[in-house]
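Dear colleagues,

I hope this message finds you well. In preparation for our joint manuscript, I am sending the Phosphomannomutase (Xanthomarina gelatinilytica) sequence together with its predicted structure, so that both groups work from identical material. I would be grateful if you could confirm receipt.
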Amino acid sequence: MTLIKSISGIRGTIGGEVGDNLTPIDAVIFASAYGMWIKQQRNKEHYRVVVGRDARISGEMIQNLVMNTLVGLGIHVIDLGLSTTPTVEIAVPMEHADGGIILTASHNPKQWNALKLLNAKGEFLSGAEGAKILEIAESNSMIFSDVDNLGKITKNQAYIDLHIDAVLNLELVNQKTIEEAGFKVVVDGVNSTGGIAIPLLLERLGVHVVKLYCEPTGHFPHNPEPLKEHLTDLSQAVVKEKADLGIVVDPDVDRLAFIDEKGEMFGEEYTLVACADYVLSKTPGNTVSNMSSTRALKDITEKHGGSYQASAVGEVNVVALMKETHAVIGGEGNGGIIYPESHYGRDALVGVALFLSLLAEKRMNVSALRASYPSYFMSKKKIELTPDLDVDAILKQMETKYAHETLTTIDGVKIDFANSWVHLRKSNTEPIIRVYTEAPTQQEADALADRIMDEIRSVS
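The corresponding structure tokens are as follows:
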């Protein structure tokens, strides 16, 4: 069992011992530290925080603990109940709130949960802000309100609909063309809140929806990370239903992947590529993704006359570089779309609407669209960490070994070869080293990953 405290929040497995897992005590301590940080930002009479959760089995328990902790600090809570990460993000500024918390462990299995923390803009905290909250939590210096100054909880379950309204109002979302295309789509909601939000959006777009695992029970029917090996049922359903495509999201609906009409993966890396192709065709400009994302985005950006840059992994890093370079779209190769015209957060609802606008405009099937893009293949592997493994020393040794190649070390070690690359980094969300590679063929990408993993094991 595991508890991971980092500048991006607290994430762990439910149950077990305090300090070693995400127990009720740990949830209260961390929510208290966040509440204290909120009150330090501005001196005002009333503070407000938006709270929502995905459909994890532990979600209601953790949310009640978090909300009532904030109430004890004199902070008013807007309770969105079952929601999505991007929905909470847009709700924070709409509610003029001081921050937001999403209870979700993203793509992690059902035994995990986490507190994702937002600032008053509805964006993830900076490294310095996250470090301050960890400092408050460690100091145990929380001061709670007296009985006459407790906060209140107000329920508002309209925000998924308001989120959909905001998506449909985006200038580049071509609702009329999508309706005319008459798409049939199978949706895998992994029995979380994507099973609520994505079908509602599609129905508003005039799409015929076939639901697969769309009951928000929190009992994930397969590994919730939207990778090819986990999506056999969706692939089969698309073919059986003679659908135009399949859509799958992760439990908190900030990652998005597509299945083509043949039941084949469009490629989660190419979710951003396709959406960027559409946005850049209408509004030329710059793009940003993280260092672990495909080179295809750079190719597409330069084709449209824009400039591409890569950030360290992590949404907050992508957003910072997007703002710095005035990027018109960006995100992460894990299927995360960040479209500033909407908000600075990964948003699968925005991604679905942009992708369908592109598909309807081009009047081609999904496999043909995928074939129109530069073809790269990725391998995403991991090495489990053990207490005796010195990750920093391993990365330093790999850096030294490949000093003659093009290296980037702002986030782990990325080695750029002539026709391929490998990115090695310690995960922020799991006790693993991530080993990502990209090459002209899947065989080459897998072989490169295996070779690098063997080299790591030999030096560890």
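For the figure legend, we might mention the following. Residues 377-459 form a domain with the TATA-Binding Protein fold (CATH 3.30.310.50). The radius of gyration is 22 Å.

With kind regards,
E.M.
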